[in-house]
């Protein structure tokens, strides 16, 4: 009878045991955590696929997940400052790990070289009209209409997320670039830190967490080799990006975009800046202009459709990828695949 009682108590405890509750901020972070937790549980995701980090609004279900969480993994306030207060006030019983603070993380400051040099906008604008005044009059009118729509959308967003917009704008002038997940060496460093944090909170599964992390790191090693081979033997850089989100990827694989259309991802490009970029595209025979799916790609298409340049999308956050353990790896591979044709061999 004593044996039977022990058996049922043991069974009841086994049924009651639940996986550790984990929540993450953006899809690439969720992917890294999901890879480490594979076979044990699935981390929740705060930012839905396809959304931009500055579009975040706290849904009731996410607030509940934060309140119930044991661990919160996020890039940090440099990327989503609007998450700082909810994490502090709702996830009161959880460990919060900002990945940008993990020791040995490669951190790069926001760069001025992505701003198409430091020439004044007025000089760009005057030069543009002297050389191309009549040619672009109609194009500018079309662009102005597109810009007005973008401005209205941005104005509404600015009212709803003023503090967030300000923080993003500020960090484009000083501080560290928050897009650090696009260096896969950081992904590997973070896998170890994620496994250690999970093991501390859930020691029964320590071995699984560390084994999963090591397997994921090995896959990233192979992906680095594959991407390096795809992007090697380049002779000229030939692309412009929408906003300067990719320097970690560029730094890892010895690339450098010619410049960015906007300084910050919450801004719209000025007419002078568009004119300057158009001049550069023609003078330097730029092959590609990249938009982003979560940042109004229609605007980029409208501005550059008349130029002899390929307008396509690259995605720093995995907007169209299936969330889960492989999203991070697929994100890096997709970046290489889309950038490669724009590098002259």
Task: Please tell me about this protein's structure.
The chain has a four-stranded parallel sheet with strand order 2-1-3-4, with helices on both faces. It has a four-stranded parallel sheet with strand order 6-5-7-8, covered by helices on one side. It starts with a helix and ends in a 6-residue tail after the last helix. By secondary structure, the chain is α/β, with parallel strands linked by helices. It has 13 helices and eight strands.
Largest sheet, if any? 4 strands, parallel
What gap, in angstroms, lies between the N and C termini? Answer: 78 Å
Query: How much of the residues is beta strand, in percent?
Result: 5-15%
State the shape.
globular
Order of helices and strands: HEHEHEHEHHHHHEHEHEHEH
Task: Please compute the radius of gyration using only Cα atoms.
Answer: 23 Å
Mean pLDDT: 80
Catalogue the unreliable spans.
1-16, 118-173
Structure classification? alpha/beta
The helix tally amounts to 13
Give the beta-strand count: 8
Helix content: 40-55%
Sequence of strands across the biggest β-sheet: 2-1-3-4
